[in-house]
Amino acid sequence: MSRQVEPADRIFTAETSARVDFSDLSERQSVKLGAMTRYVARSHFQTWEQLQRMPDFDSLTGIFTPLVCLEVEATDAKVRPGETLTARGSSAFGKVLDGAGNVRQITRDGLHELFGEDDQRLGSVRFVNVFTRYDKDPAKRKVLEIPAELGIGPLPTRETDLPAAEDLIDSERLPDFTESSGGVWHYEQTDPNRHVNSLAYLHVLQEYVLTELFHAGAPMDSLWIERACLVFRKPCFRGEGYRRSVWQRGSTPEVLGAAVFKAGDPAGHPPAAAAALTLAHHEN
Predict the structure, then answer these.
(1) Residue that terminates a domain, selected from 106, 135, 162
(2) Are 103 and 93 in contact (CB under 8 A)?
(3) What is the C-alpha to C-alpha distance for residues 96 and 175, in angstroms, rounded to an integer?
(4) Which residues are 262's β-sheet partners?
(5) CB of 184 within 8 A of CB of 239?
(6) Which residues of 39-50 are buried (b: 16+ CB within 10 A; e: fewer)?
(7) How far apart are CA 163 and CA 168, in angstroms?
(8) Are 155 and 202 within one domain?
(9) 94 and 34 in a common domain
(10) What does the angle CA 275 – CA 142 – CA 257 come to, to the nearest 5 degrees?
(11) Domains held by the chain: number
(12) Which of 139, 156, 166, 279 could disulfide-link to 93, CB 3.0 to 4.6 Å?
């Protein structure tokens, strides 16, 4: 007799389809890394929307689940413009423990893959969201059990493997590239949570890394970024300045660590977001 799965340990599966947008395809007719989430996000987030209504974005009250980790991969496989793409994946509740074994965060962890009409795999996205409350008091923002209104039990048994910013960058040494003037977050990079959207970090880091590699002599006619893992520590807001830094990670030159720092933070302060970016080369 099989053991009954506790509601908090339930695995949610989903499948969604959408026609690929021409602007999301590269010159090689592959779905771009930065566009991958557009086709798999509904597969991940519709499960949550079925369990609980959307947050009140007007008054910013109640519980919401911001992204704390995003892993994106693109295979560079070719698809036709206008082709229907299918996202398939699963998500589940989890918990992050501190060093003493106590619950530090409750998560929603989902892995979703994207396929073309011939079932060719085009890429994947992993979303890790954490439960939190809209509140100015950090202690009151913490959510250490699944909200009772979801009716699925207080705690999952599954533990979430969540990287930290320091796992992605070599902050113990000076970066290989760093900018002095930096940039500024603007209106079109924000979302209804009233802070900078997670994909904006990926876009500004991609641009900076590839620009610096070009100035260092790298071949931009063949180089591209095939995988990115991002960790979000601290939200950024419209009108705030930022600066970016890049590190080569150890003996693997194809993987770079990158970070976005708030312009007003002192030297040595942890970044607002960090990333590991994996480089690849086209043969022709």
Answers:
(1) 162
(2) no
(3) 30
(4) 242
(5) yes
(6) bbbbbbbebbee
(7) 8
(8) no
(9) yes
(10) 10
(11) 2
(12) 156
Tell me which residue range forms the domain holding 174.
163-284
Stated length of the chain:
284
Tell which wins on pLDDT, 4 or 69. Answer: 69
pLDDT tens digit sequence for 43-95: 888 777 666 655 555 555 567 788 999 999 999 999 999 999 999 999 999 99
Q: What is the 3-state secondary structure (H, E, C) of 137-197?
A: CHHHHECCCCCHHHCCCCCCCCECCCCCHHHHCCCCCCCCEECCCCEECCHHHECCCCCEC
Residues 70 and 193 in one domain: no
Distant-in-sequence, close-in-space partners of 215: CB < 8 Å, separation ≥ 6: none
Is residue 173 scored above 50 in pLDDT? yes
* Separation CA 13–CA 89 (nearest Å): 6
Residue with structure tokens 């413009």?
Answer: 81
Measure the CA–CA gap between 123 and 167, rounded to whole angstroms.
23
Tokens of 78: 């070719």
Statement to judge: residues 178 and 72 lie in one domain: no
Q: Tell me, yes or no, whether 175 and 156 share the same domain.
A: no
Domain boundary among 162, 183, 200: 162
Average pLDDT over residues 134-156: 82
Position 279, amino acid: L
Maximum alpha-carbon separation in the chain: 65
| Domain identity same for 265 and 176 | yes
Residue written as tokens 């086709």?
39
Q: Are residues 182 and 252 in the same domain?
A: yes
The model carries a pTM of 0.91
8 Å CB contact between 103 and 95? yes
CATH number for 172: 3.10.129.10
DSSP, residue by residue, 63-101: EE--EEEEEEEE---B--TTPEEEEEEEEEEEEEE-TTS
